[in-house]
Fold:
Amino acid sequence: MDKSDLKELVRQSYGDIALNGRNRGCCAPAETCCGPAAAPPTAEDLSGRMGYSAEELSAVPEGANLGLGCGNPQAIAGLRPGEVVVDLGSGAGFDCFLAAAQVGPTGRVIGVDMTHEMLQKARANAAKVGAANVEFRLGEIEHLPIADNAADVVISNCVVNLSPDKPQVYSEAFRVLKPGGRIAISDVVNMAPLPDHLASNPELLCGCVAGAAPAANVERWLTEAGFAEVQVEAKPESRDLIKDWAPGSGIENFVVSAMVTGRKPSKRCC
Structure:
């Protein structure tokens, strides 16, 4: 399928999750490529396996945590009071609310999502708790509705792999960061080429699997975008979580989660 078709497929899939509260790992389908999936674990169980603490899980408004993602970008972001944070693919606002607590009332968090249903859910969650330092904007992560040099940190949790134009996502992240700003992303990377029947499966394209890129490509795209101090740290232990996204398919043999970091230089050479 072409880029626009893929983007619409992802939009519809996550709109369905927002409306129906389905949590099947990182958007793993109820009917996998290998048959019916088992009863899904709770969002709290899934997020706990991704590295979120019990304190973090209890700190967000009910309905913000949908059990999506593949790690915890908060753990590597090093957020500080007063910082401006942008969350790519913010969903129902889970990571945004956690970030808002860290940057405090003098800071600001901007969540960007292309799914109307998710945006509506996130704004409702913000209203529940009166989160004055959080806002949610409709937009695509390849074309962020944010000014140049506006953010101190860009975070994301298992979303960039869904984009059909990942280099553009990293270029946009670089654009909106202030000089010296940093990117801290939890995502899925490809460790071996997927078989055709997995790579072309529409459900796995929406499930954070088939769209994963090799770590070397991610490093190159970040560097070409202008980032320095780039690191893509694969997490082999994530296979235990990933195997449950499409049980019996063996996808854990091909992809793992990774922590992706980089910094926008304070001064660009030449």
Observations:
- The chain has one domain: 3-263.
- The first strand starts at residue 31 and ends at 32.
- The first helix runs from residue 3 to 20.
- Confidence is low (pLDDT under 50) at residues 23-34.
